[in-house]
Amino acid sequence: MARLDDRVVIVTGAARGMGANHARRLVGEGARVVLTDVDAEAGAKLAAELGGGAAFVEHDVSREAEWDRVIATARETFGSLQGLVNNAGLLRRERIEDESPEAFERLLQVNLMGTWWGIRKAAPLLREAGGGSIVNISSTAGLKGYPGLSSYMTSKWAVRGLTKAAALELGPEGIRVNSVHPGGIEDTGMFGGSGATPEQKAQAAARIPMGRNGRPDDISDMVIFLLSDASSYVNGAELVVDGGSIL
Question: In CATH, which of 3.40.50.720, 1.10.3720.10, 1.20.120.790, 3.30.70.360 is domain 8-239?
Answer without folding.
Answer: 3.40.50.720
